[in-house]
């Protein structure tokens, strides 16, 4: 295991709730598997990349740390579904429900996690392709920008004024 992998594992353990850590094995096999799942997901999210932990941009370490925590919550929820139960006997009712408690926080984590990945991959697109005036995002609004800058000298729907090439 490289120094970077060990550092990411330490960060995951720092953030991971104690209850979840107690469910992990001594050798950190599950946490390493979650980190690899996150890395695979990052590589498969468009644009496709082929990063390993050591070749991945260092500013993405937080994605591995946060994502491993999200996966651990997801798999803890799956495990809790097997242990939850409800019992009713002549008006006495007992319900043990861990799933709904985990589900609320997991939904919030997944929303944050998804936006983190989208933002990181958007930066990857910019790095690969670059952004400029010729990109589609700017082509649709360049007329509005020019009208704002030029004021009344640039009427709507007109062509480029003379001397402005």
3D architecture notes:
The chain is mostly helical and 165 residues long. The chain folds into 2 domains: 3-130; 132-165, no CATH class. It has helices at 3-15, 18-22, 29-44, 61-83, 99-129, 136-139, 142-150, and strands at 85-89, 92-96. The protein has a two-stranded antiparallel ribbon with strand order 1-2. A hairpin with a 2-residue loop joins strand 1 (85-89) and strand 2 (92-96). Helix 1 packs across helix 4 and helix 4 runs antiparallel to helix 5 (99-129). The protein is flat. The relative contact order is 0.10. The mean pLDDT is 78.
Task: Describe the structure concisely for a colleague.
By secondary structure, the chain is mainly alpha-helical. The chain has seven helices and two strands; from the N terminus they run ααααββααα. The protein is flat, with a radius of gyration of 25 Å.
């Amino acid at each position: 295991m490289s120094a970077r992998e060990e550092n990411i594992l330490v960060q995951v353990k720092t953030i991971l709730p104690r209850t979840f850590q107690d469910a992990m094995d001594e050798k950190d096999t599950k946490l390493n598997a979650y980190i690899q799942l996150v890395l695979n997901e990052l590589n498969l999210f468009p644009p496709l990349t082929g990063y390993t932990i050591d070749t991945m941009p260092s500013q993405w370490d937080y994605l591995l740390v946060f994502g491993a925590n999200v996966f651990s919550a997801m798999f803890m929820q799956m495990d809790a579904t097997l242990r939850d139960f409800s019992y009713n006997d002549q008006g006495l009712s007992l319900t043990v429900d861990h799933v709904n408690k985990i589900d609320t926080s997991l939904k919030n984590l997944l929303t944050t996690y998804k936006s983190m990945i989208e933002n990181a991959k958007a930066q990857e697109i910019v790095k690969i392709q670059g952004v400029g005036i010729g990109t589609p995002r700017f082509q649709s609004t360049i007329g509005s920008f020019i009208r704002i800058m030029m004021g009344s000298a640039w009427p709507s729907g007109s062509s480029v004024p003379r001397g402005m090439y």
